[in-house]
Each structure stands twice: as C-alpha cells, then as structure tokens.
Amino acid sequence: MDNSYAAWPPMRGLGRYYECRLTVVGPVDPVTGYMVNIKLIDAATRSRILPVFSRFAQQADAPLGQMMRQALDAVRDRLPHPVTRISLQLAPTYAITLQEHDMSACLISQTYDFSAAHRLHCDALSDDENRATFGKCNNPSGHGHNYRLEVTVAAPIDAAGHITPVETLDAIVNAHIIEAYDHKHLNIDTPAFAEMNSSVENIVRVFYETLTDPLESAGLKLDAVRVWETEKTVACYRA
Ligand code: NI
Q1: pLDDT in tens, 6-18
Q2: Do 123 and 60 share a structural domain?
Q3: What is the CATH number of the domain that holds 20?
Q4: How far apart are CA 137 and CA 130, in angstroms?
C-alpha cells in the first residue's frame, strides 16, 4: 500500500471499522535498533488476524472470547518475539483485550462521561494555603468539569467462548457512578467528598472502591479505573 495510514482494506458501501493493537515484547537489535520490524507486524495482522475477525463478523452473536483466542493464536509465534497482548477496539469507547498470560478471560474496557462541579479545598489548610495550593480550583463557588471515566474488567470466557456482554458493565457503572455523580456538586451532593478533597486521584480511588463489589457479584473482576478531569489530566487506580 502506498499510504499506510489509510484504512485497509478500504471500506466499500456500508461497512465496519475496527482497530487492532498488538503488544510484542523483546530486546532491541543492537545493529538495526529495531525490536521488530513494523512491516512484519502489519503483515501478520493482515494475513493472520484479519481472516479471523472477518469470519467471526459473519455471526450475529459472535463468541468474542473464542475469537480473541484464535486471533492471538494466529500470530503469537509468527513474529521474532512473543505477542503478549491483542486488543480490538470495537467502537470509540469500547475495547476488548486478551493477554497471553491469562487466556481464560478477556479484559473489557468501556468509556463513560459525566459532568460535575467541585471545589478543591482542604479544611486542614489555611485559606492562604488553599489558594496557594489549588489556585483557581479553590474558587469558593466551585467550577465544573466534563469528566471521562474508563472502567476495565476481566470477564471470564465461558465454555462456548462468550464473555459477559458489555451491557452488564454499563448497567453497573450507570447505577453506581453515573446516577450518583453526574450533574452533581461533588463537595455538596456526594457523601464521599463531603470531607475528602475531590482531587482526581481521590475520585478515581472512590470509584474503584465503589465498583469492586457490584462487579464481583456479576462475575467481573475490576482491573483498572481511569478518570480524566481534562484531556491532559488523568489518574489511574488499580489494586
Ligand atoms: Ni477542578
């Protein structure tokens, strides 16, 4: 292909768009400075993985866990170094990942958004210290953010190759996070931040702790939570 940035194969009529990411781990060659030639990754993805996804895409309720296993098996020994992880971005907000060290479960990642107001302020600090530490974020009337939340869970692959549908994750996040925090003032409307400063570091930990048990009850193991306060400020929490 002349332009490798163009989608391949090109879409014809009404089609589907997926992104596939491979993680390859190995030492860097001292002569070439390459770990692995990207052309080999591209070729393996197109010749080995694409046919797997194409085949499963024909099925109405494709067993995604089985598909990811077949996709990883199709390339794992086809490159000079081991492929440790394969991710498929199924939609801009939704991805599934299989890791070579645990073929019994897929990671499901889904992104959500919510808007909230807050004020960064610590009672333990003086007013001057609060202003010096938090600047405009200490404004007494608060300020707002459009937060982005990403939740990643491990979903077991069942005997038929299926994983828990992402709707199960969505329902739990909606019930426990979005309903509780969207369009709220964190300091005033949410008990978790009545005393504790609503920094993004504290928010991500509270969300992790809030989601752990409900997800566990649905057979999903919480892997990581990420919260973006702005495009450039993100905090990640994992146990
Ligand atoms: Ni803020």
Answers
A1: 777 788 898 888 8
A2: no
A3: 3.30.479.10
A4: 9
